[in-house]
Amino acid sequence: MAGVPVALKDNIQVKGVETTCASKILKGQIAAYDATVTERLKGADAILMGKCNLDEFAMGSSTENSAFQKTTNPWDAACVPGGSSGGSAAAAAARFCSFSLGSDTGGSIRQPAAFCGTVGLKPTYGLVSRFGLVAFASSLDQIGPFTRTVEDAELALSVIGGHDPKDTTSATNEPAPVSQTPKDLKGLRIGLPREYFIDGLDPEVEKAVRAAVDVLKSMGAEIKEISLPHTKYAIATYYIIAPSEASSNLARFDGIRYGYSDKGATNLQEVYELTRGAGFGPEVKRRIMLGTYALSSGYYDAYYSKAQRVRTLMADDFKNAFKEVDLIAAPTTPTPPFRFGEKTNDPIAMYLSDIFTIPSNMAGNASVSIPCGTSAKGMPLGLQLIADVFQEKRMLSVAKAYEAAKPFALLEK
Q1: Is residue 98 flagged as an active site residue?
Q2: pLDDT confidence tier of residue 413, bands split at 50, 70 and 90
Q3: I need a labelling partner for 293 at 20 to 30 A (CA). Which of 12, 197, 208, 240 fits?
Q4: Is 108 assigned a catalytic role?
Q5: For 250-363, where are the alpha helices, taking DSSP H only?
Q6: Average pLDDT for residues 304-313, to the nearest whole number?
Q7: Catalytic residue among 108, 158, 367, 397
Q8: Among candidates 157, 125, 159, which has minimal Cα distance to 142?
Q9: Which domains can be identified in the chain, with CATH numbers?
Q10: 392-405 and 150-160 helices cross at what angle (nearest 10)?
Q11: Where do the DSSP E strands lie in 199-256?
Q12: Of 84, 85, 98, 367, which residue is the catalytic one?
């Protein structure tokens, strides 16, 4: 990667560089060490160009929750770039860098990739080290690349992936080397989950995804309808587990050890209250309160424990599906990119933006979003491919086959 310009989401540590997580509470905080992915990029002679905007602490689906900046979609400045890695997606799409890194907790790589017309790869949980990534929900977070081609995503993964003893959840598996594009897909079984083609799915998105599936079928793949029955619980389960882990992880930002601290406090209680009250934005506060409530005495079993059991059922759905098919194809998002302000006053509508991406985080599966066309307004639409754990090679080879058969007109302006 000698000389290749790379940008990083601003929740990934770069020694000597400010890491804010787009939050006032970390403004001016200089990283004391490199994240493992940063270290590996430097070791491959990549050029780190700078940091990318995000929803505060990676909590959001539009990058409208940033405390500092507004990131626009390079295809239409009136539309959001997606989130939470909206800055990384926009930077890659607008050719500010060769590729960028983001983090995906419930769709935060794949959803903005679909909105900005890039490839967005969420590797299997544990394949890329989380050391040096500021934690949101530790059992769900995964670092991955935004690129303009599938081959570039493979190349990026080959550099940043692999075991890291500094991350206790790091897998011993190594990413596969860059592979050849298959000439056909004969013998490949692709599943279409009926729960992903539901009321509320925008007709333009459904049409584009089904057309993409027809391309895969024309290349020899067998298409089969499957069921992932617990998908309907994905949003509810995620918004118990992720905020619970966030409540724990964000407790460290207390005005004592690092980051912003309110100087007007007269006692310890006020230090906590005033610092966190001024330092955190409304969405972060909302999720901390949700998580704290779910973990509180008397509610832990009713909410958090039950959500973890449902999460296991969702993972079992994927295990059963992959006994029947080799890969799953689905929409990345339920709608095309939406306009600024369209969903900010309706948190549930915003949360539903990730309805098709969250299940892969719950199960830890590999998944990727690739461009599969544009809406009537000329905005990008995404096809999501989902593979079993550590099956990135198969998944990306199919993505490359589709990309070769149906090239996407990348943003040139």
Answers
A1: no
A2: low
A3: 12
A4: yes
A5: 268-279, 282-295, 306-324, 347-351, 358-363
A6: 97
A7: 108
A8: 125
A9: 5-239+303-405 (3.90.1300.10)
A10: 160
A11: 222-226
A12: 84
CB contact at 8 A, 394 and 325? no
Provide mean pLDDT across the span 379-393: 97
| 143-147, strands of its sheet edge to edge | 47-52, 5-9, 99-103, 143-147, 119-122, 366-374, 380-387, 327-331, 189-193, 222-226
Residue 9 a catalytic site member: yes
Res 178: pLDDT:
86
| Dihedral sign for Cα atoms in the order 212, 218, 222, 224 | positive
**Does the bond joining 84 to the residue before it have cis omega, within 30 degrees of 0?**
yes
Specify the DSSP element, H or E, that contains 195. Answer: none
pLDDT of residue 173: 95
Spot the catalytic one: 9, 51, 122, 400.
Answer: 9
Residue-wise pLDDT tens digits, 170-208: 999 999 888 889 999 999 999 999 999 998 899 999 999
**Distance (Å, rounded) from C-alpha 154 to C-alpha 176?**
8
Helix (H, G, I), strand (E, B) or coil at 99: strand
Rounded-to-integer distance, Cα 146 and Cα 331, Å? 18
